[in-house]
Amino acid sequence: MSSTSVPANPVAHNVSMILPKLNDADSDIRYMTLNDLLTMLNSGNPTFIAHDYTLCCKIVDGLLHTLADTHGDVQNMAIKCLGPFVIKAPETILCPTIEKVSNIKTEGSLDISIPALGLMRIVVALPHPVPGVSRSQKVNEAYGAISKALIPRVVGRVVVPLKENKGHPAPPKGMLQEELETGNDSNSLDLLAEVARCFGPMLQEVEVQALEEMTLKVLESEKCGTVMKKKAVAALSALAPFFSESLLAHHVSTTIEKLRASHLTSQQRRLYITVYGSLARSIPQKFGPYLKTLAPFVLGPLSDMELKQQEAAEADADGERDVALEEVREAAFIAIEGFLQACPSDMRSYKKDVLEAATRFLKYEPNVADDDDEEMEEDEPAEDEFDVDEDFEEETGFEDEDDVSWKVRRCSAKALSALIGTLDPNDPALFGQIAPALIARFKEKEESVRGEVITTLAYLITKTGSIETRDTASEYQHVIPQSKKRRRGFSESLGADLHAQQALMNGYASPSTPPPTDTGTKGLAKINPDIIKGAAKLLKTSTPQTKEVVLILLKDMVSAQRGGLSEHAGLVIDPVVDALSSAPGGGANIAGNKLRTEALALLKVVAEMHSSKVLEPHLARVVPALVAAAKDRYAKASSEAFGTIECFIKALTPPRSAASKTQNGQYLAQLYQVVTERISASETDTEVRQKAVQALGLLIGRTSGAAGQKLLSQDSRFAGQQLIADRLKNELTRLPCVRAVDTIAVLAQSKNDFKPDFVGSVALELAAQLRKASRGLRGASLSALRMLAVNEASRSCLDDKGVKEIVGLLIPLLQTEDLHMMSPALVVLAAFAKDKPSLVATPQVIKGICGIVTSPISGAALDALITCVEAMGHAGAGKDLMKALLDVGVQGDTDVTGQVIGTLLVSGQSSVSVDLQAFIKELRSQSDESKRCLSLSVLGEAGLRMGTNFPLRPDSFTTYFSDPSEKVKLAAAVALGRAGAGNVKTYLPKILSVMGQGGGYHLLHSVKELLQHSTAEDDIKPYAAELWSNIIASGQAEDNKVVGAECIGRLAIIDPQAYLPQLQSFLQDNNAAIRGMVISALRYVFSDTDVSYNVNLQSTIVPMQEAMLADADLDNKRLSLSTFNSALHNKPDLILPHLSTLLPYAMEATVPRPELIREVAMGPFKHKIDDGLEIRKSAFETLYALLESPASRQRLDIVAFYDRIAAGIADEHEIKILCCLVLSKLLVIAPAESTRRLDSLSQYFRPVLAFKPKDTAVKQELEKLAEQAKAVIKVSVSFNKALGNEGGESSGRAWRDYFEWVKKDFPLYVKQAQEEEIRDR
Fold this sequence. Notes:
The chain is mainly alpha-helical. About 70% of the residues lie in helices and about 0% in strands. Belongs to the CAND family.
């Protein structure tokens, strides 16, 4: 019978028809019959055999017969049938089936593992409990069968006595008992582990205890082999999550007694230590407290005393080695690694012992005479540690084949790596003991050990480098940060835009390694020469695998120090170039390709972080090697080569190479040649061509001006520009060409830097791209067009026809639906208006501007609009625009329209045909509230821009504070403040005078506007004391707190010596409103000041943060967390060194407080209100912010951090969403901890997805549930892709079951998440 004859919807009769064939003499018939039975069981209705007990008995008999078959294929197929059968069979047949399968006789040639394999298939198939989901009747029935039939068969006794069992015979000898007697592995331990994974949450304590006892007996048995004992360790690990506290305590005490026994063998000792390591990984929270007692037993084999005892024993035994003891040490280091990773806080008191043991055995080479070793270290010069001609490939093994000491050394290096992860980056042990010990082992001859040593050292260096809180682009620190004040001048506005981009692309004139500032960086600087010497020798003599990790080490060191090779560049660069040139190429040579890629990556960071003076002596060797790598047929290496070439182009061109004059020209010519060749070659890979285009744009841009043209000929530059213009029309290279044009436009210094017609043709092509569907292409094209327009050198190359076409193509962008596109478009129009106003001030552009002012825009978008309008006014083209704006009038947003009209009024002066008096008259004569508000806004903006020339006095505005309209009052207050910002000496005394008479709310707005827009800080200081007292007095009212906080924050910025101490003292005030205002004020201080202000905060910021975070008022608690977040983001240098003091406040705030949850009656319904929700949201936002920088991540206790984030999944909607985002980051940042958390995360995720809303749920609630389901599924897909598919320990049963359920019940959300992940990449 073939599977094609199996009916689509089989019934019980179809099954009964094929059962006789299971006894057929032909094994093929038996096999195919089982295959058909499997198909029927899988495709049949869930109950199609459930009511036919007789048929089920026949199926069981048939399966038992085939399980005892002499053909392995038939047995395997019978095992496969057991799973679907027990799902479809009635509950009453489960126990008999389990008993009969477990009692199959394993005689003759029959595989003795068949019973256990069959039972495992049954256990896995049965419905089992799922965390967060109520247990169904079928789950309870399945557990009943496991408890009644399976566990007694495994252990050989009835564990849970049942009334109905009285008088029944005792169960036969247990499966594990048989294994203990024979020593044969029948996979019973695997079965035990599967029972624990599937039914662990339902197992009773006596059952867990019985299974644990049997497992321990296997560990203690002399008959059981190594494989069985390893399985026993895995079984204990699976059982451990279900140990009660008393059982775990008993287990630990029992094993301790065993370890203390005098007759303990090395093998037993190794097994118990392995169990401890496994338990630490399995149940870190429960097992951690026992480490205080257990750690000494694990550290014992690694002690100096035991090492000396071993040496003495070997001497007595004529040098015979105890290999078993080496295995104990290997197991001890593996266990310690697990302790440090899973329970770092519990191992804190043993870090010194771990450090001594790891460094002791890192150099443990019993085959090498100690005397010789010491003599070599002390007497020989450093350069002779390993000879240049030494061939590591021939000496990667030991003469003694039985020597396994290399495993101990490798595990000691791994333990050191885990220890480094728990230490503070400034811990003196890192560079006082660990780093020297690792460097001393560069001479290690065993390949795997040497690689682990170097990798551990690289990790140590990376950890140290991450404490640098400066931005990675610190070379651009000389760029003046954009002021928070309103920009007053058009030329200043556009000039700052261009100069910032030029500074960003030009880089820095002479990069140098910053001086070390703390213990970690000083230690790294000290060992730098030793690392370089050792690495250089390894690069000359070692294997490709070692060379690769050495290159990674050097790259990490250069990145961490932001340089560091200035005095030893020759030692590194020459062997790196040799490695790059000599590594075998070709797509099939994986090792060679990886080596070349790492060599190029190292050269890249060397060029990026060292001055041209350091690089120039080596260019004769480096540049030809880069040229050869750029031509490599392996795309990844070629692509990496062009990234490196870009860095060398920056190093070889002004301003970095200003002192080199023209000597770098020959090298730039070589780079130009290879770049253009690779762009033009038809066989070049697309990614490589795109990288080459970017490099060409940078080369042309950096050789602009008189100095640059001496390095690269004008003909070459023009030919390169033409190549970019041609490639701009190609779909595959369009985006990199757009970015190349952007670079060229930013760096151009004169009209002569451009090939004739280049600017016109590319500008039109860029403008045409603004209609394309790709947002990335449109954004890049608009950015490049903006730079072409802002830079006068390129703008002067555009003719009227080109400008007219570009303006026409920009008009569709003048809409507030997309501010990111609108703002640059307005800047382009502003630049064109400077020279060609008539082409810009068209009816279409004016209509677009009038449409913009109807929306309430702010920030960069408003600045761009005002810049454009100001440009048109200065150019005398504002008449029609003014008329159109006046027609819009009160239909637009009052504040935006007022600022735009005020700007145009001042910049256009007489050309706009409207003067200031018209608006003054309008204000005084109009009764319409909206028109008066608009006039006030116009006059305020005019006052800001006219300064002391503004004819109105403060009384012209304060008069309207008595107006019956609240809107007019507020508009007058804002206008007063803006006008005051232009003339502080006249306006501020009047504001203070009126403030003393009342009207605090409106005058606070005036003060806020004055402080926000004024640049005359010296004029403000004489009035600061009076301002301060008035703001403190007025700001305590509920409506005034926010504005008052901003005002006193800005005063503290203006005069920090006077007001920061007062802010600190106010944090102790008894009035919660004052404390809250001060906390908010500090947020403005942190966000609106640059690095130069830090000196004022250095001594007070941490005490102030502690005082804020300890505030008991709920509103202040939330504000303090928000301010702490602001400090982390804006003042990391001051906050991160004290994170261990401040972070506990935020961690504590994430815990829900039951006393803050109250019940409110709303009609017949009762509604719960959580007053602590906003505090928790702020706390979780702070935790999210901590993952943004490597410096803060290094200072986190990831285990405790993960605990709070996982708990947040069970919190309210907003916190669930935020925690899903944090988990996505933790997946990348802490993959090891994420792997350990997979099963527990599934327990948090499942209830979120399984929640069913009530029938009366409103639309908003349903939308929230859908949003959080999408967030949970998205992070689940990411975790499963990264960790869940690896099998083994990385994805446990709970996670696999959870994700299968997600795929089955939420296929649409899973598909969306997978598609989003692809798009994000």
